[in-house]
């Protein structure tokens, strides 16, 4: 969020990021409980619960959850110098609500972690092999190749 060319642009990006976070927070906020009590099938015929709807329509998935942590977590960028953002303070509650609404996300994260570990290990090995050794799949790669590999 902080890698922008000027303060006006940074302010606009921060405001947009805040609004995006607000949308995600409202999706899992408590307002759905009143709807569930008032309407027989508030999420349509396909979905029993809000969690089923979120999961079935891919509102959240492991990459989006990781993105939320990366973008709104309290540990990064220039925002830390100005203090923890409201989004960073609210992020644990949002994540808790997502995992409470649909516990299947726990299994998805557990399945994704070994894959991420293996992929990051492969990237590290290709980017910086040990002294005098070739990377497992060939020579070390440069920054441009690494960028293309990550995309």
Automatic annotation (TrEMBL):
What GO molecular function annotation could you give as one example from this UniProt entry? ubiquitin binding
Xref: InterPro entries: ASCC2
Domain of life (superkingdom)? Eukaryota
Q: Name the PANTHER family for this protein.
A: ACTIVATING SIGNAL COINTEGRATOR 1 COMPLEX SUBUNIT 2, ACTIVATING SIGNAL COINTEGRATOR 1 COMPLEX SUBUNIT 2 ASC-1 COMPLEX SUBUNIT P100
Q: What is this protein called?
A: Uncharacterized protein
* Source species: Bicosoecida sp. CB-2014
